[in-house]
Predict the structure of Glycosyltransferase family 2 protein.
Amino acid sequence: MLLSVLIPAYNEINNIDTLLEKVQAVPVTKEIIIVDDGSTDGTRERLNSYRSIPNIQVIFHEQNQGKGAAIRTAIQHMTGDIAIVQDADLEYEPQDYPALIQPIIEGKEKVVYGSRFLKPENRHSYYSFYIGGQVVTLLTNILFNQRLTDEPTCYKVFEANFLRSIPLECTRFEFCPEVTAKVAKRGIRIRELPISYYPRSIAEGKKISWLDGIEAIWVLLKYRIVK
């Protein structure tokens, strides 16, 4: 099966080469779809050098639209059987791909999330982010009858045709709660597997803020009500 690795990127000049090297090193058949979301730090220019590599597609947004918009663009271009979302930073470990995609390859699941909390040795970032993530996860479980430990995780893996069938509207970080809500409303209990996690600081380029947590709560409530 072909794995589509969907990478939204914005101002990641310090990480993009290392990330792509790590993704390419994973021993699975894959295509890599990078959507540069209007970077201004040289990331766009650097990505131009990857356009000649056969399994890499590079797509440019002329203006910054947000992570959700970049993922939606990547979905339109993917051709694989399985899709995984990969942030362009180095917080997550691509060597976790084989374990995450295996339940989908076996036909046991349509959706798998990688949980940072199922691996006890993982460190976590700012306490406010930790608490915010736990609140969002708890609310998800209450509203959508899930048993998740880590709803805001980056590593969300889908049977590709199933992901294509979800009508997404997100533009920013609300991709996570929107896709989770819409998966759950189709009666799917999302399976989690442990993953590695290496948090970075705001000074190192972490872009999410507490306001995104408030937005995630609003999105979850909205999609609990909206059909």
